[in-house]
Amino acid sequence: MSHAEHEIVTAADLPAPIGYAHAVIAAPGRTVYLGGQTAQAADGAIFGTTIVEQFDLAARNLVAALQAAGGQPDDLVSLQIFVTDIAAYRASMKELGSVWRTHFRRRYPAMAAIGVAELFDPTAMVELVGVAVIP
After folding, report:
1. Three-state SS for 79?
2. How far apart are CA 85 and CA 94, in angstroms?
3. Superfamily of 7-134 according to CATH
């Protein structure tokens, strides 16, 4: 069975996107709204003391939720990244890029990184919220 690809759109009037897409036209399919995923380990506790460590587990958890819904990372069309320390996130871009490729390869959905004062679990530094369309 052929797997339809979502179309990545780059707007000519905007700066070239690096590490995100300007827009994504979703292929026909079932829309999956992924609840916020943090670096919550199996015991419920937040794992990791750095943005990179926490992003790694949050991404793993997001992919696990997506796979449970029958999807795969390429099905993501939108991702919001909430971080409690945007400066630390910015300073960790190289390491975060490597972690990203581990979970999502080199495909980037429409994304936003948003600095917030605090997440629901006060020890969480990053939370990922995504939307996927499963063809």
Report:
1. strand
2. 16
3. RutC-like (3.30.1330.40)
